[in-house]
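My hope is that you will study the protein record below before we discuss the fold together.
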Amino acid sequence: MRYRTLGASGLRVSELILGAMTFGEQGGVGAPLPECRRMLDVYAEAGGNMIDTAVNYRDGASEEIVGRVLEGRRESFVLGTKYTVSRDRADPNAAGNHRKNLRASLELSLRRLRTDYVDVYWVHLWDRDTPVEETMRALDDAVRAGKVLYVGISDCPAWVVSRANTLAQWHGWSPFVGLQVPYSLLQRDVERELLPMAESLGLGVAAWGPLGGGVLSGKYSRPGGRVAGGRLDGGSLSAREHAMARVVWEVAGELGVTPAQVAIAWAAGRSEVIHPIVGARSVEQLGDDLAAVDVVLPAASVARLEEATGFVLGFPADFIAQTSSWVFGSALVAGR
């Protein structure tokens, strides 16, 4: 496993992040404590050093399990958790990005994780009713108190992140150094605004869902791979999803790797700032995902995969590209 700094920070993070949303058996199929411990061991042996969880994952069980499996080796990992999602749906102040929920959520997470600080504290979702100034100042207070080292944000419009970091720069507050977004061959929307913003402003990108909710793992595209039941029953997939999965399966066969490795390698290779988040329910699944770091996709394979997505940037990116030669003439910079 290779390492890069998380965005413009000096924090060294492995190229793949271990997602702990599957840690725990509450609320659906997940991994029990012994399997979670083995998965962490496998991840660490591969050189991985960052774990991602949230206050609400598995009704809190994920944080509790992470805290248990990290005992005795906490300092060797970059530990991140998130807040925003409700801790108590009967309490109107138990959710959101305001100061009160941030404080209560952080204290709860610290107790569950059995630590006195988190390395990266993520805003889980944009809260349209809380002023971004309040959120940034409250996050900065947590950093100054030593309970948080760095801050990041997930699932948020690019203009909000840009405004937040501008305010942080003006006021001397801790800026966001990381961005969490969904990114896969099936969902490339972040290429329009969010990914260019992250590259420009110096944010590391933790990409969740690189397997497209399991669609790109091969479980539906391989012969006999249709799996009944659950949110992603093979029979409920769209024609586009089936077609994309088949292309991933074909490319994987040609390269002698697995479909999951192709999907993860593609996401990781799109930008130097991207760190795919890999989650699994077993050591075998995780081992397969981690092997993606050794997969180098040929340019022809990348082109074939991307052509199959049918993705277009849309306005304004496509319009600017189409009109640039007319607008700038001989002043046009090559490659732009």
About this structure: The first strand starts at residue 3 and ends at 5. The beta strands are 3-5, 12-14, 17-19, 50-52, 78-83, 118-123, 148-154, 176-182, 204-208, 274-278. Residues 227-234 have pLDDT under 50 and may be disordered. The chain has one domain: 3-310.
